[in-house]
Amino acid sequence: MNGKQLKNSILQWAIQGKLVPQDPNDEPASVLLEKIRTEKARLVKEGKIKKDKNESFIFRGDDNSYYEKFLATREVKCIDEEIPFEIPNGWEWCRLKHMCSMQAGKNISASKIYDEKSVLHPYRCVGGNGLRGFTNIFNTEGHFAIVGRQGALCGCLNIESGKFYATEHAVVVNSYNIISSLFIYHFFTALNLNQYATATAQPGLAVSNIMEVFIPLPPLSEQHRIVSKIEELLPLVKTYERAQNGLNTLNVSLNEQLRKSILQEAIQGRLVSQITDEGLAQELIEQIRLEKLQLVKEGKLKKSALSNSVIYKGDDNKYFEKIGKTVIDVTDEIPFEIPVTWQWVRTKDIFQINPKNIAEDNCISAFIPMEKICATYGSEFSYDKVQWKTIKTGYTHFADGDVAFAKITPCFQNRKSAIFHNLPNGIGAGTTELKVLRQFGETINRWYLLFFLESPYFIDEATFKGTANQQRITSGYLENKLFPLPPLQEQNRIENHIKAIASIMSR
Fold first, then answer.
1. pTM higher than 0.90, yes or no?
2. Of 454, 453, 351, 342, which is closest to residue 401 (Cα–Cα)?
3. Which residue segment(s) compose the domain that 484 sits in?
């Protein structure tokens, strides 16, 4: 439970009579309602307010059902279905209009509002969100709950005391000096006034609707006890909320750091044990070479793709890269040590980068813009079904089994990436801000590849070009990135181990 939920629970307990004990000696709420009716009658007689043509009162019959009697027509109707919960003895159900009035303030020129209080401008000027400034006139005097009535401030609550000027954006809640204004303030908070706002571009508070809402009214003494208890508890709620927010932030941070550490450990060969019987990564490289040869023969791959580099460790413990007949020292490029069964390779040598699809124009395929790829550790995406002819040009191609990641900031850092699967007819296209990797045969575990792309080694070391708002990884960063390649069975064990950890973390 977060701080807001706890506060809402406290307020809900309050208006249901569950927050403080009842005192049988309290003057019942029915007396309050009678005092309010008497006061309203006096104000009507003096011409200060208008008579409510639909005046009514609520009572409980001998059958324990609730009824509402309309004074003008003498109509009586059962309202049991409108009563949301039972209330303690001494409380009364009433409509909001039975216990208070709500009246918007008056417009005032901005030129008459000053930033600072002075002898010439002593009165607070109150708008929908509280204090706007100070002025030399007032239109309200007393202790009132104030409700914002328009726009983003709709339903905003404040308390004002003394002499002040209420603007047209502030609704003054008048309880005729009979009902506790602080109780009204807290009750309105529990009521969630935003639910009564008009559903327009510029929301407005529908006061007429609010006035018809049923209110559980406690005795005045209990109102004071409720207010005291709420004001005792709210600072504790704030303390709890700060602690909860701090804990949530810490949990998120720890969770993030833990995920990063796990992925980094995985690609360094530290997450699972090595098993010699599982073979060598070099065997995968040979398999990839044979797959490439076959694709070249079939005309599906350019011959230039066969010119791979070979990275090896010399007798002097230095690393060298051989390209054709050229050998260079790449020791400074090696980011960390890997197990002896693993092999360093260039990403471009073991994957097809941004491959192309061939399909009929009317073939139904997947269209995936960037917003349909989730920014999270994992592989979550959705797609729209479209004809291939509408997306075959101007978009990045991919197919079932391909692994892709966003090359543009901040999507790159947010780890927008996915393993594409179950695409319509096995193909799709999408945002040009993707880099797509396709393996040769079944040589690389796709999840291991995804973990590599989401690892700190790949993310944190990236270099970018472009403007501040539109930066992309530099050309060749992916292609020339050193890839730590484990034996295939170990890749599979890494996948299973990380998924098991992720399952525990998500509980």
1. no
2. 351
3. 276-505
Do 163 and 38 sit in the same domain of this protein? yes
CATH of the domain at 488: 3.90.220.20
User: What φ, ψ does residue 343 adopt, rounded to 5°?
Assistant: -145, 135
Q: How far apart are CA 397 and CA 420, in angstroms?
A: 11
Residues 280 and 232 in one domain: no
Task: Please give the C-alpha separations between residue 264 and each of 413, 458, 497, 498, in angstroms, as whole numbers.
Answer: 15, 9, 13, 11
Integer Cα distance of 222 and 396 in angstroms: 68
Quick check: 367 and 420 in contact, CB under 8 A?
no
pLDDT of res. 252: 67
Q: Are residues 308 and 223 in the same domain?
A: no
pLDDT reported for residue 57: 87
pLDDT score at 259: 87
Residues 232 and 342 in one domain: no
pLDDT tens figures, 64-84: 999 999 988 889 999 999 898
DSSP, res 422: S
222 & 280 share domain: no
Q: For the segment 479-504, what is each residue's pLDDT rounded down to a tens digit? A: 999 999 999 999 999 999 999 988 87
Segment 102-137, tens digit of pLDDT:
888 999 999 999 999 999 999 999 998 889 999 999
Question: Domain boundary at 184, 219, 236, which?
Answer: 236
Report residues of the chain scoring pLDDT below 50: none
Q: Are 160 and 135 in contact (CB under 8 A)?
A: no
283 neighbors 441 (Cβ within 8 angstroms): no
Candidates 483, 492, 489, 487; CA nearest to 284 is 487
The answer to the question of residue 449 being in a domain is yes
Return d(Cα 62, Cα 65) in angstroms, integer. 7
